[in-house]
Write a structure and sequence with these properties.
With about 200 residues, the protein is mainly alpha-helical. It has 2 domains: about 60 residues, Helix Hairpins; about 100 residues, minor pseudopilin epsh fold (3-Layer(bab) Sandwich). It contains 8 helices and 3 strands. A 3-stranded antiparallel sheet has the order 2-1-3. A hairpin with a 2-residue loop joins strand 1 and strand 2. Helix 1 runs antiparallel to helix 3, helix 2 crosses helix 3 and helix 5 runs antiparallel to helix 7. It binds fe (iii) ion.
Length: about 200
């Protein structure tokens, strides 16, 4: 087995009541695990065996012949990044250098919240909202399906899954409520600050 499902950084029920154990059992235990199983089957006895997820993602992004490999590799990476983008003690605002940079590049923390909320809400169908560092500036971006900003030169700092499987059991069709909860109660600014410091 080349790839393994990474451990969650908290207990399966640690994000309740904002995201239930039921949601994480399916989202982590079925969807995330499923991408790992599929990718292992796809890369067996190919040049991709033994490569990192990032290497595979960069090598296959935009290649229609390798779409299945890209999708599964990127979904493993995106989901691991997503679990770390949340915390049982999340929410609030960042501090320090990241807070200053948000004020500098967005104008205010509230302006960042508005941009991130709009990105998550505007993504039609399945995808992701991101806070990234691109060309030295912070930006909010959204991607469709499995796409990830790291394959086109940005450094992801934070992500929010807006596939229906991320919120449907707890919020049904109310994606805006899920996004608001993510920003108020779940977002892990320490993780984003560490990523910013390392960028
Ligand atoms: Fe997901």
């Amino acid at each position: 087995m080349t790839f393994v499902l990474p451990d969650l950084p908290y207990a399966i029920d640690a994000l309740a009541p904002h995201l239930s154990a039921d949601t994480l059992n399916f989202h982590y235990g079925k969807h995330h695990a499923g991408y790992v199983g599929k990718l292992n089957g796809m890369v067996e006895a190919t040049d991709f065996e033994g490569k990192t997820l990032e290497d595979i993602m960069r090598a296959t992004a935009g290649d229609m012949d390798a779409q299945g490999i890209f999708n599964n590799a990127a979904q493993i990476w995106n989901h691991t990044f997503y679990w770390y983008s949340m915390s049982p003690s999340g929410g609030g605002q960042p501090s320090g250098a990241l807070f200053d940079k948000i004020n500098e590049d967005f104008g205010s923390f509230d302006a960042f919240v508005d941009a991130f909320t709009a990105a998550g809400g505007a993504q039609f169908g399945s995808g992701w909202a991101w806070l990234v560092l691109r060309d030295g500036k912070l930006a909010v971006e959204r991607t469709a399906n499995a796409d990830c900003p790291l394959t086109d030169g940005a450094t992801p700092l934070l992500t929010m899954d807006v596939w229906e499987h991320a919120y449907y059991l707890d919020y049904q069709n109310r994606r805006p409520d899920y996004i608001e909860t993510f920003l108020k109660h779940l977002v892990n600014w320490n993780f984003a600050a560490d990523n910013y410091a390392a960028a």
